[in-house]
Amino acid sequence: KTSQAPDVILFADTFTNHYDPEIGQAAMSVLEAAGVRPGVVPHGCCGRPQISKGLLADATALVASNTAALYPHAAEGRPIVFCEPSCLSAVREDAPALLRGEARRHAEVVAKAAVLFEAFANTVADRLPLRSGPERILLHGHCHQKSMGMVAVAKQLLSRVPGSTVVDLDAGCCGMAGSFGFTADHYDVSQAIGERKLFPAVRAAGPHDVVVAAGTSCRHQVSDFTGVSPVHPAVLLHSLLEKAH
Predict the structure, then answer these.
(1) Contact 32, 103 (CB under 8 A)
(2) Quick check: helix, strand or coil at residue 167?
(3) Cα 80 to the chain's mean position, in Å?
(4) Quick count: other Cβ atoms within 10 Å of Cβ 109?
(5) Rounded distance, CA 179 to CA 202, Å?
């Protein structure tokens, strides 16, 4: 490991890479502000969309390619940081099961190195020069984030923002559920799920509150049905850094 080697690898998922690059840029800046050297490596989709549609041959090819790209870093002890919970779930929970032999063993090493942005950032948050934040931070956990038990650490990270109170909305699924809510015949059900608890809670937010959601589908669902635009935790933290990085 040379002095120029990155400390962590940021997994640039498809949504972050192509649709919301500001999230990846914010995550890199926050890590740098904490004295961490982030790096990126070329890789493809995590395979979650293919797995969810039963296209396991396509998913396996993606997983094999990603494992080959990420394994050298994981083997040297570098955490692989994910901004998107569903991608983390795919790499951590599903990828090893799709491979066999040495490739599977490598995927297991990658899986153990995989960590959500909020979890890793929480380990270095004491180094972040944060100014006062919004009155309340309303946290909505992505379903994969909940299933992996990672909402608590997200709340702990956001609780480090000076002057802010963090509220876990604990509102269940947003209703989008990957591509489920995008199909016309699921529209009413998708909306009804969100209206059960999440959308009313967001609409009741005060003018100085900020809604935070790590999941891409969650942010779009909330924005489409409430007009309130949630932000990714990395984007919020980046906006509160005392100095521009």
Answers:
(1) no
(2) strand
(3) 12
(4) 17
(5) 22
Among candidate residues 91, 53, 27, 58, the one with its CA nearest the CA of residue 177: 53
**Using one digit for the tens of pLDDT, what is the confidence trace for 100-113?**
999 999 999 999 99
pLDDT of residue 177: 84
Mean pLDDT over residues 217-244, rounded?
93
The residue behind tokens 């529209």 is 187
Nearest CA-CA partner of 231 in 125, 139, 116? 139
Between CA 211 and CA 139 the distance in angstroms is: 6
Each residue of 103-139: pLDDT tens digit?
999 999 999 999 999 999 999 999 999 999 999 999 9
Helix, coil or strand: residue 68: helix
The two structure tokens encoding residue 181 = 């809510």
Q: Which two tokens stand for residue 231?
A: 């932000």
Q: What are the beta bridge partners of residue 116?
A: 82
Euclidean distance between the first and the last CA atom of the chain, given in angstroms as a whole number: 25
75 CB neighbour count, 10 Å cutoff: 12
* Whether the model pTM is above 0.90: yes
Q: Which candidate, 42, 23, 81, places its Cα nearest to that of 237?
A: 23
Spatial distance between the Cα atoms of 202 and 211, rounded to a whole number of angstroms: 7
Cβ pair 15, 216 in contact under 8 A: yes
Do 86 and 146 touch, CB atoms closer than 8 A?
no
Strands 136-140 and 209-213 come out as: parallel
Do the Cβ atoms of 241 and 33 come closer than 8 Å? Answer: yes
- Site of tokens 């521009």: 244
Each residue's pLDDT tens digit, 65-99: 999 999 999 999 999 999 999 999 999 999 999 99
